[in-house]
Specification:
236 residues, 6-stranded antiparallel β-sheet, 6 strands
Length: 236
């Protein structure tokens, strides 16, 4: 296994043997020519390792999170391809772990969004149910008012019918009383006429006592049952 403890700046050191590769922190941005990688951004660190075939590979990392991979002086890939298992000296985590954490974070974000949507749906459902309950309550109040109005209408109609019935009874009694009064008046007039007739007849009989005609020439009373010539001058 090659020894790569050569001088590459104050931060160079051999860190560990891991999977037949020696990882070595080479330095940070101030140790490199950042102008060479201006299109990538500021260099954060460079990492070199020797694989089991003895190839020296370097990974240049940038503060933007991107990285370039070199074997010697030849660039062979970007961070998300060949360097997937190379630890990122900026975060201390390799790309697969970063991607897993990113997926977990995305899953957590989507779960939060789902929970938020679910909570929003529950809130809207509660509001809808509250509106439905309020609508049902108002409908019940409307039905109750309508039923009360119908009840009062029926009571009013019943009172009107009772009033009409009593009015008819009153009119019938009044007509009966009028007929009875007229009958009494007719009877009274009939009796008065009979009385006057009797009075007239009595007056006629009384006046015959003072008849100046000679005796025997007086008219015989139609009411005297005695034979002619037997009648007296006076009824008394």
């Amino acid at each position: 296994m090659a020894d790569n403890s050569g001088g590459h700046g104050p931060h160079s050191h051999r860190t560990s043997d891991k999977g037949k590769m020696i990882y070595r922190r080479v330095g940070d941005g101030k140790d490199f020519d950042t102008g060479t990688y201006a299109d990538r951004g500021k260099v954060a660190a460079r990492q070199e390792y020797i694989d089991h075939a003895g190839r020296a590979t370097s990974v240049t990392e940038y503060e933007s999170g991107r990285a370039d991979i070199f074997v010697g002086d030849d660039q062979v890939g970007r961070w998300k391809t060949e360097a997937a298992n190379v630890p990122n000296t900026v975060t201390g985590k390799n790309l697969k772990q970063q991607e897993w954490e990113a997926r977990q974070a995305e899953r957590a974000r989507k779960q939060q969004e789902y929970e938020a949507r679910k909570a929003e749906q529950e809130r809207k459902k509660r509001e809808w149910e509250a509106r439905q309950a309020e609508r049902a309550r108002k409908q019940q109040e409307y039905e109750a008012r309508k039923a009360e109005q119908e009840r009062k209408k029926r009571e009013w109609e019943a009172r009107q019918a009772e009033r009409a019935r009593k009015q008819q009874e009153y009119e019938a009694r009044k007509a009966q009383q009028q007929r009875e009064y007229e009958a009494r008046q007719a009877e009274k007039q009939r009796k008065q006429a009979e009385y006057l007739a009797r009075q007239a007849a009595r007056s006629s009989r009384s006046s015959s006592m003072f008849d100046p005609r000679p005796r025997g020439t007086q008219a015989r009373s139609i009411f005297d049952p005695r034979p002619r010539g037997k009648q007296t001058k006076s009824w008394f």
